[in-house]
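call fold(seq) -> tokens
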Amino acid sequence: MSRVLVTGGAGFIGSHLVERLLDQGHAVICLDNFNDYYSPQLKRNNVAAFADKPNVEVVEGDIRDEAFLDKTFTEMRPNEIVHLAAMVGVRPSLTQPRLYEEVNGMGTLNLLEMSRKHELENFVFGSSSSVYGVNSKVPFSPDDPIAFPISPYAATKRANELMCHTYHHLYGMKITCLRFFTVYGPRQRPDLAIRKFTNLIERGEPVPVYGDGTFKRDYTYVDDIMQGVLSALDRKFDFEIFNLGESQVTETLELVRLIESALGKKANVEHVPVQPGDVPITYADIDKSRKVLGYDPQIKIEEGIPLFVDWFRAQKDV
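ret:
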């Protein structure tokens, strides 16, 4: 079995992946800097779910620190990496573009360099649907030209994909880029719409809906995302880009209605201005992912929201 380094392993998607890899018998290095973008305690709670299991090591550090990374790669000897660590979110990137470029740009470059130097077998990169920008063609295909992202976050993710391709071209590294479409489920970040709306409706507080509520998103349950990531690790492509989405779009107001139904409570919707950097729609064309990656998402939003609400209400720190 592989020895897999998961960057951002204490986060929402990363912690699920660490658990799945451990269940499959892999040895896992969970690397995270536990920053304060949202409560570090939530991330430590995520880690607590697997910290005592055999074959896992939790390492705290920053991917911008090249010396730290070199020491980690040298001592822990991973042979594969899933790179999920990043400064995330479109709106915060508008006010902190330099930080996003430092973490997402230099951090990813550092990891590519370490993977080249230490001759890792496989590099899987967690990209984002935001790279498509305001794309008039829907659904979005990995083959679409995407030269114009509209937020610093999206721009860094697209630049990361280009750097991944450069390292594949120059050094023959096996690299797969996975474009995630609005992932949700247990442990979702508190700033993301589904958890944020659920929390506000549960508390009886106003729910801010941007614009007229007709923005559409391709919400993807975390279990389906795991299926795609694990397949990319298993198959070790030379260089490929895949969409991981549900290939089903839901308007914001419909999302609110689904959460209302699952909670048994009415939302107090408050319409607010559209935010710069937000795209009107994300919609994944997953034909390539189905054919090449063997990706087969199962959980539609109508089933996923009640599953999320059940998890949410079981938490002590909501």
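Residues 63 and 111 are 7 Å apart (CA to CA).
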